[in-house]
Amino acid sequence: MHKLLETANIKLANVVADVLGVSGRAMLDALVAGDTDPERLAKLAKGSLTPKVKPLAEALRGRFTSHHAFLLGQMLTQLDQLAALIAQCDVRIEVSKPCEPEIQRLQTIVGVGRRSAEVLVSEIGVDMARFSTAGHLASWARICPGSYESAGKRRSVGTGTGNNWLRTTLLESAWAAAHSRKSYLGAQFRRISKRRGSKRAGIAVAHSILVIAYHMLRNAVDFNDLGADYFDRMNNAKLKRYHLRRLAELGCDAISVLCMRSGNTKAGLLS
Question: pTM of this prediction?
Answer without folding.
Answer: 0.65
